[in-house]
Write a structure and sequence with these properties.
mainly alpha
Length: 121
């Protein structure tokens, strides 16, 4: 019989199962139906990434572009989507400075346009 006053010995497998339950299975228990629409959007974006592979090969052959150029283009095109999650969380944390964040974003866009203009000339 288990006594509340006597510490029980838990095996390492028991610790592992508790850890898995606490960190992974608990996420499944907390899922709500209202989470489904955003998850479907991210799923659709992931699936479109698979079809983009076929499109990349088509563009490579049809336009005669190098794989290196297309990989670089894909990197720069996907960079904003990659940074969306951590930057969005950061913005949520410092939301009271939203006015300054708007000006910071506008300044970064202006700087990037000036850099691109310099690359063209």
């Amino acid at each position: 019989m288990l006594s509340p006053h006597k510490p029980q010995k838990i095996s390492s497998i028991g610790h592992l199962l508790k850890w898995i339950d606490r960190h992974f299975l608990e996420l499944g228990r907390e899922v709500r139906l209202s989470y489904l629409p955003p998850l479907m959007v991210y799923l659709a974006a992931g699936i479109s990434g698979l079809t983009a592979i076929v499109g990349t090969f088509f563009v490579k052959e049809y336009l005669g572009l190098s794989a290196e150029f297309l990989a670089g283009l894909a990197f720069w095109a996907m960079l904003p989507w990659t940074l969306k999650l951590p930057v969005g969380h950061l913005v949520d944390l410092i939301w009271r400075f939203k006015g300054a964040l708007v000006f910071l974003g506008a300044g970064l866009i202006a700087a990037s346009l000036i850099i691109m203009l310099g690359l063209l000339t």
